[in-house]
Structure formats: structure tokens, C-alpha cells
Fold each of these.
Amino acid sequence: MFTPDPIPRPTGPPASSTPLGDYLNQSPPGSSSGYAVLPRSLAEAMPLPWQHQMRNLLAEFHQAFGHVQWPVYRVVPSRYEQLANLDDDQLAEVGCTVEVGDDGELEYRMRDGRRIDDPEALQVLVSCLDPIPPRGARPPAAPPPPPAW
């Protein structure tokens, strides 16, 4: 009735006790060290069965954490840029200034006055236009074909 053979063990690494954290640590699109953002237009464009599952997961999540004082989040699409490539508005956004030093070279400074020694090597987040179209928006028109000569 019972086999004397040992039960085969699964191959591969053991299952993680933090699978979501493991996935988000890989830096998939829309994630950072503190947040995971789902563009609403893409979530609502998912196939209907996915939307049902997502709705149920979010409902359970909000039920479990409904007691938390949730702030209102403002999500701003951003991209990394070299500090030296920013214009004045972008520099102000990241809290930096640039001025011409005594030697005629540009000097980049933080808001508190600290000098930034290598602005070409410093990557900062600056806001950008959202590349994901809002729900119901038409995709941009294709460029016209080049003229035939």
C-alpha cells in the first residue's frame, strides 16, 4: 500500500517568504524603494478576468489596511537626468542652483549652499510628460510618410 521510496523533493530554491518584496526589489516599471504605482489607464485596460482579480485583491488590501490614515498621494511621472543637463526650472525643481564662479566655470550648488563637485556624474529625478496615455485617449497619430522624390 505504501511505497518504500522516499518522497521526491522539489528542485530549485525554496519558496520565498517575501515574494512580492522580491519581485519589487527587481525594480519593475512603476516601482521605487517606497512605492509601487499602477497607472490607472493600464490597469483598466487589462483583460476583464485580470480586472476582476485585481479588484478583489485591492478590496482585500483596503479592508485589511482601512484603519491606516491614508494621505492623498500625488504621483508625478519622472525620469533620471544628469544634473549638468538640466535647465533652470528643472534645477529649481531638484533644489539646485547654478552660477558662474570666480574662475568662469559653472558652479552647481545645493539649496543649502553645498557645492556639487561633479554635476556630470550626478543623476537626479526630474518630472517629465507622462508617456502613458490617459484612459480613453487616442494614441498619437503616426507621422506622415516621407515625400517621394
Amino acid sequence: MKNISTNSPVEELRLWRKFITGDRLAFQELIVSNYRPLVQYGTRFCRDQPFIEDVIQDLFVYLWEHKEDLSDTPANVRNYLFKAFRNRILFDLKQQQRFTDLPEMDDEGGELLVPCVQDTLLHIEANTEVSQQISGLMAQLPERQREALFLKYYQDCEIQEIADIMGINRQSVSNHLQKAMTFLRHHWKKSFITPLITYLFSSLVL
């Protein structure tokens, strides 16, 4: 599954370097390119889209106001923004006591949120029965497993990138993905397993 950002990592770095020198057009393009992925990532933690959008706006305002202090060469601009956004939204949710399933909680704790990666998976197969089954199963995955799947298959992140964004080690990422894969393999009906599981997990390197 491809990253929905319209810019390549190289182009994002070019825009970043221009942005920290005060280039407003480059900054606007960074916002446009990354806004939708950040909104969708925010649904990992909160259903309130206006709140998510407020956090994103606050993040970009902060970046503009502190641009002189920012590194001119983050390893990956998208991942840098994801990590900064993750830290900010979790802090704001905790401050407002609106959080549902923060990463510090046990994988089995907290309220389950239906992830946006589910919406992407549904495009793979138009069959209504398959779509309904995927929807129900994805909703049953623990928060961190769903977050790892979102980053892996919706944002096309590597294992190390996911670890950096989520603030965990590579082995933990692999464990989350492996547990999710095992759950889906076990629960999907036999007739659906071959085309979907093969497609989804053939590129998974643990």
C-alpha cells in the first residue's frame, strides 16, 4: 500500500530545508502533503476529528515559530512529523483526560478504535461479505497492533521507522505485527485467507 503523500522523501527534505529558511510556499506544501496522513493517524488515538485537526494546526504553528531551531536534515520528514504529532496528541489527550488507549496501557486495555488502515484494506476486495469480516476483525485488534499495521501498510513504513515513531524497539514492532497477522490468519474464513493474507503480509519482514 502506497503512502498517500504526493511528495517523495527527497522532495519533502527539499521543502523542509526551504521551510526552515522562512519559505512560506514550501511550508504550505509540506502542510498540504502531510495533513491528510496526520488526520488519519490521529484516529488511532481519538475519534474527534476537529480535535485532531486542532492538534495538527498547533503542531504546524509551533514548527513555523521554531523553524530556526529545527534540524535541516531529519532522516525522514514524514516520520519526523508523525512522531512529533504522536507526542503532541497523546499529551493533549492526557491533559484533557480524553484518551482511550494510550501506549503506556496494556495491549488488552482501553477502548478499541476502528483504524483507518481498515478503510484501505477494504479497497483490496469489493466483496461485501469480505469487507464486513475485515471490518469486524480489525476492530478487535489491540491499539498498538492496529497502529503498527497502519504505519506498515498504509504509510509503507519500515520496521525501524515504525519503532522510531511509536517509541518502541524493533522487536516490539515485529511482535505487534506478528500477533496481528496470526490473529487475522486464524479468524478469517478459509475461503478468504489465500488472496488477502498473501497480499497483506508477503512483504512483512520481521
Amino acid sequence: MIKVVLYGPESTGKTTLAKQLAEHFNTFWVPEFMREYLQKKWDDEKELVSKEDLLPIAEGQLKLEKEASKQSENLLICDTNLLELKVYSEYYYNGFCPSEIKEEATKDNYSIYLLTYIDTPWDADDLRDRPNNREEMFRIFEAELKEQGFPYEILKGNEKERFDKAVKIIDALLTE
């Protein structure tokens, strides 16, 4: 199965693109569990992410991906994966990331990472908190891909340009 990951800093259009690609290719997409989990935590307790949330978030993401994989025949679009959780964990917690997340995040389980660039408008919400650190975060995300040796392509431009490039990349993977 071809597994495509939308990966990159917050507010760079990953969810929008994941939905569009899944619809275009008539397949399933895996939503970002962390967003749902943390929004509920914010709504219920007015608290942001803590170290204690990392493993439940990872488990929830893996569960969603496993369920969607069972339903998909040849292509799965992932709004994120554990490598993104690893990057954020290490960024927010001075290099700390639970070993279980590191181990799973660094497995080469995906066909391609589509790294979303920061040339999209910032969309503020309850959870997004670093509108001025987008360039730094992009460099960190790309450095992680390079360090792991994972295949990736950078998506830049407007929504249509990103979509068209992603379709072209996925089409090539499907015909290999």
C-alpha cells in the first residue's frame, strides 16, 4: 500500500490537502488525532498539551491509521504521523520525546512525505501558538526528514498549485 504523509508546521494546509487528495483518489485519509485530542482538552479544561499527553496522542494516531489502512486498498493519505509528534515534542520539551514515539516515528513506513511550506496564510485558533516561528519550524521539519533519510517533496504555492503537485507525485507512485 502507498502511504502518503502530509507533514510540516502548523497552519500550512495539511488537513485541507489531505481531504482534497482523498476525495480525488477516492480513498481514505487519516485525520490528525492530536488536534482532536488537544481541542477537547482545551474545551474541557482550558489546558494545553503536556508531556503526559504525548503517548495517548501517539496511540490515538496509530489507531486511526490502522483502522483507515484496513479500509484502503492501495492508497492512504495521512494528515500527519508520529514523526510530526516527535518534532513537536522535542521542540517544546527541550529535546524530550518518549522512546516509544521515537522508535515508531523513525520507522520507514511511508512512501512519501509531502512537506508543506509556510507560504499559506496563518490561521489562528485555540491551539496554534507560533505564528512567528514558521520559518524555524519548517527548517526543523525538513532537517528531521533529511536525518531519517525519508523521501519527501516540498509543496509550495497556492492551494491549487500544491494540490496539482501532490496529485502528480501520487500518480507517479501509483504507476510504479
Amino acid sequence: MNTSDQKPVSDQMALISQQAELKQLIAQYAKTAGVYETPISSLFLARIDQPSAPVHTVHKPAFCIIVQGLKRTMLADEVFYYSAGQYMVVSLDLPVVGQVVEATPEVPYLGLRIDLDPQQIGELLMTLKSQPSPPSKNTTAGCGMFVSNLHASLLDAVLRLVRLLTSPEDISVLAPMAMREIIYRLLQDDQAEILRQIVMSDSQAKHISKAIDLIKRDYNKTLRIEDMARIANMSVSSLHHHFKAVTAMSPLQYQKQLRLQEARRLLFTEMADAATAGHLVGYQSPSQFSREYNRLFGSPPARDVARLRSSGVLAVA
């Protein structure tokens, strides 16, 4: 066996060993079902003991790994599956539906999420600007979410971050170093162009992120596409085209997702009635609100919230 044959084999063996250690660390920290905050502010660990119902949320920019189980994430009509040996990156705020589809008490779903700071990505890119970019399968900004295969160098950096949970006194110094390496490794991977586009000031994806910021800020107001196009420094037709490419939905569909998710939160946490919740998030017609709520969540507002309350929690992805 020559050297070029040996390297892929050794990398695969390293990956298997790293996954086993990471699984042990997550199981040690997450002893029962739930999503756990950690002393590392950007790091969250998850354990789920059974398949979950679909969970609607606005996913923040993040890097997610599964070490056991299988998860499905839906972005509009796009469906992403990922499992052990893979990771998912969300590069900007996206309304998604997440669902754990493989998990049992004996073999639970185990995974982690690391929130990504676009500013940190941009700062690291500035230090790398004199280096040639790695080959990329994506020459233009595509969907703001992707699934890719893990490799040993990336997982090694993740492991060093998670190991710090056993030595809290080291977190303040070593966690930023591990996070920087994780971002560096992501920027060297074959789908890195999606992350690069999100922080490059002259990219179409960066322009779309400005439009998203406007929708998030004024989600309960009438959406004027012309205003969005002006803020994004794009024509109306270009805005529609690139917004759909990045988010898999139109600006109006994006706004509707935000409105209905916020209304659901109000109904669940603040005991608001459907008419009030609908009005607060920007609906003028109670019947239209109930109709669109039912279409997204599968039940009318009162029935949906009753089900949520009987389960005791408003699930989050």
C-alpha cells in the first residue's frame, strides 16, 4: 500500500475514534433528554430519546454535528438529512422545521450546535485574504444551509472545544482558540464559499442578509419590496431571484414564517387569544391568520396551543 492509499485509511480511523470520544463526552454531559447550555456560550449539547414532532424555529447561523441518530431539517421545500459522520451549517437566519427521526432511550440522538458569529468569520477571512481560496463546488452563493461530510481535522478542533467542559478554568483562554480553528477548518472545506459569501461586503448573499435584517426588524409591518431592494442595493427582480436562491422562499414567505412563529410564541407564553396574537404580528384579518396558521402548524391556533401546553413545553430546535 503506498502513502496516498494509507492517508485516507488513517483519516477514517481517526474520524471513527474521534466520533466515539465525542459521543462519550456528550452522553456524559447530557444524561437525560434535552438541549443543554454549557459554560462555553456558543456551545449547546443535545440528547433526544425518541423521534420528535416537527419543530418550527428561526435557525441562527450555526455549525451542527450529529454523533448518533438521524435528523431531518426542512427549509421551505428543501429537505436536508444528516447523521453521524456529517455536519450541517446554517449561514444566516433561516425559518426551518427540524425533526429527529431516529432515536431511542437505548440509542439516543446525540449532537451539538456551535453558534457562528459572522463577524468572527469576516475577521478570519481578512487574515486569510493573502492566501488562495481552496477549490469550491460553489462558485456563487447558493442556499444558506448545507450538509457536508466531517473530516478528521475539523472534528479534532471540535473535540478540543468540547473537552474544555471538563476543565472550566481553561475555557476563557482556550475556547476562543478552538473556535477560531473550527471556523478556519470550515472555511477550508468544499462548501466554504457559502460561508465566505455571507460576510463578503460585495456578495449577493451579503446583500440578501441586509434584506433579511429589515424583515426581522419590521416583520409585523407591511413589506415593501422596493424598500428592501434599495437597502440591499439590488433591483427588485434581482432581489427576488437571489433571495429565493439563498433562503428557498420569497421575501413575503419569509415574513409570513416569522409572523406565524412569533404568534405561536405569544399564544403559548403570554396566553394571548388568536385575534390578538394575529393583530400583534401584523395580520388585519383574523380569518386569514387562522387559515395560514393552520396551514403552517397543522392545526388551528387554539387546538395547536392546547396540544403544546399538554406536552408542557414549546419545543425548540
